[in-house]
Amino acid sequence: MKLGLKIEDAIKLNPELKKYTYYKNGKVRIDFKSKESLYLYNRTVLKHVFNIDMDFHRDALIPTPVSRYLFIKNLCESFKEENNRDIEDVLEIGTGSGILAIMIAKYYKCYVYATEVVKEYIELARDNVIRNKLENRIKIIDSKGKIVEGIPEIEGKKFDIIISYPPFYPPHSVPSKRSFGGAYARNVELIGGGKYGEGFSLRILREGIKYLRKGGIIGFMMPHKPKKRRKIIEEEVVNLGLILKTDKIKIGKRIRHIIKGHLL
Ligand SMILES: C[S@@+](CC[C@H](N)C(=O)[O-])C[C@H]1O[C@@H](n2cnc3c(N)ncnc32)[C@H](O)[C@@H]1O
């Protein structure tokens, strides 16, 4: 699958993008400072590159489809390499619009339980699941503020992969329009806990390990900075007796890190 979509092709596929274009050095560009253009462009990429029809909440983070796809592909391929069998059951923590859950269920044909805490995002994720005819494969669950333990729908279940692009904000973070995909983040998205915002991820590891099948993986995607946050999470993977593996994905100038803990 060719992952990118050239700006000129995106404009042809979705002429609504035209009003956000400008020319630099004779090349057409999109002004991505406008949240609307980011919204339209990413929807176009999802539709034409990934054959996924999704809507995003106007106030929320607008996810970059390519980084999400590279993340799920990395985890799913690691699982297959280690286990020599197909993935059956996946748990996603903090699904937002449902993008990771939808990509995994669609491309790896497995069953996904995905949690979220913001009511409007839960509704949107459920709509997105239906739009893509994946309601037999994905269950969107209200975590009611829990992380993994104490969610009745997943109690007693075991998963091959637990995946999360978690909230990772240190205490006292304030919403920043630019750095949050053009969104004004809600307070619930600006959580994380711990000194560097690692707290939420540590809880996923500590609680999630009990819900992991043998051979399973818990995997996170993390921004490049701060390194300390990644280091603390990586140390906890090792402390819990999981096998640590890390990878990097590069999308344009942005680096995203993947942290994986394998249960052997
Ligand atoms: C960084 S966003 C990731 C969204 C989406 N998975 C993506 O890749 O774009 C983290 C999400 O976690 C959600 N969240 C925060 N606390 C949660 C909890 N206790 N249970 C489930 N989701 C939670 C937030 O509302 C937000 O949608």
Explain what this protein looks like in three dimensions:
With 264 residues, this protein is α/β, with parallel strands linked by helices. The chain folds into 2 domains: 51 residues, no CATH class; 206 residues, Rossmann fold. Helix content is 33%, strand content 23%. It has 7 helices and 9 strands. A 7-stranded mixed β-sheet has the order 5-4-3-6-7-9-8, with helices on both faces. The protein has a two-stranded antiparallel ribbon with strand order 1-2. The chain starts with 6 loop residues before the first helix and ends with a strand. About 3% of the residues have low confidence. The protein binds S-adenosylmethionine (SAM).
How large, in whole angstroms, is the Cα Rg?
18 Å
The molecules bound to the chains, other than polymers, are:
S-adenosylmethionine
Overall pLDDT metric: 91
How many structurally independent domains? 2
> Roughly what fraction of the amino acids lie in strands?
15-25%
Low-pLDDT residue spans: 177-185
CATH structural architecture of the largest domain: 3-Layer(aba) Sandwich
In N-to-C order, the SSE pattern is HEEHHEHEHEEHEHEE
The quaternary state of the protein chains shown equals single chain
Quick one: overall form?
globular
| Helix percentage range | 25-40%
Q: Helix segment count? A: 7
Assign the CATH class of the largest domain. Answer: Alpha Beta
CATH superfamily grouping of the largest domain: Vaccinia Virus protein VP39
Structure summary, number of beta strands: 9
